[in-house]
Amino acid sequence: MEGVRKGMATIQSRPPLQPGEPAPDFTLPTVPDEGFVALADYRGRSPLLLVLLRDLW
After folding, report:
1. Domains held by the chain: number
2. What is the pTM for the complete model shown?
């Protein structure tokens, strides 16, 4: 699978997730640029809600 570089992220093409299928690992920058957070940091510990806010400031 080849990745496509877009800004700070590399996007890999893959089929959509099916219900019950685990999410792929990812790492995102924190706001305001204090580091990074990865799904692996939370996997198996508790449910995780990811909220992406765009164009709010």
Report:
1. 1
2. 0.53
